[in-house]
Amino acid sequence: MQDAITAAITSSDLQGQYLNSESLAQLEQYFQTGELRLKTAAVISDHAPDIVKDAVAHSLAGANAAKPGTAMHTTRQYAACVRDLDFYLRYATYAMVAGDTSILDERVLNGLKETYHSLGVSITSTVGAIQSMKFVTTELLGEEAGCELGCYLDYICDSLT
Ligand code: CYC
Question: Where in the cell is it found (predicted)?
Answer without folding.
Answer: Cellular thylakoid membrane
